[in-house]
Design a protein that fits this description.
- With about 170 residues, the chain is mostly beta strands.
- It is built from no helices and 13 strands.
- The strands form 2 sheets. Strands 1, 2, 3, 4, 5, 6, 9, 10, 11, 12 and 13 form an 11-stranded antiparallel beta sheet that branches. The chain has a two-stranded antiparallel sheet with strand order 7-8.
- About 5% of the residues are buried.
């Protein structure tokens, strides 16, 4: 179980915003290799903007969406199945308060196999868009304590190709 506090800073042209958000997470490991995770992002949180206006300075809040994520990892024969869903609830201003808007769900599925205790190959779906990836596990201090990973997907909304590079390491 864990909690994360986020200090948020953003700059857009000459305007700046500051904010704060809190995340909460839970991860359950089984000896069989089954993992189950739950995360709540932006439990509280908003950006506060100070914008120049004709009659001085205007301050307004930009609330962050509440995101609830659940996922699992399940070893199956020589493969590992990954499944996750994100439920995003945008927050909107209503009568000088904040309310949750319509739910926006996303689903992610992947199947990964390990080759010679070192290489990983993965394929799956990000919503209905195919995605592929590869990884290399290696040793820095302890056996297989680090991994570099690359994944590719062609984009969900015609925004172009997505490339994600990750480095995972144990302390």
């Amino acid at each position: 179980m864990g909690m994360n506090a986020n200090l948020l800073l953003i700059s857009l042209a000459d305007e700046n915003a500051k904010g704060f958000a809190i995340d909460f997470g839970f991860l359950y490991h089984r000896p069989s290799g089954l993992n189950v995770a739950l995360q709540v992002r932006n439990l509280t949180g908003a950006y506060s903007w100070k914008v120049a206006a004709t009659n001085g300075e205007r301050v307004y809040n930009d609330p962050l969406p509440l995101v609830i994520s659940a996922g699992t990892r399940l070893p199956w024969r020589q493969f590992t199945l990954f499944a996750a869903t994100n439920l995003t609830y945008p927050r909107v201003e209503v009568n000088k308060g904040t309310a949750l808007a319509d739910l926006v769900p996303t689903i992610h599925l992947a199947l990964e196999t390990e080759i010679e205790d070192r290489f990983y190959v993965r394929g799956g779906l990000n919503q209905s868009t195919p995605a592929i990836g590869v990884g290399l596990q290696y040793t820095i201090r302890k056996h297989n304590d680090s991994r570099v990973d690359y994944s590719f997907h062609p984009g969900v909304n015609r925004e172009g190709f997505g490339h994600l590079f990750s480095w995972i390491f144990a302390l």
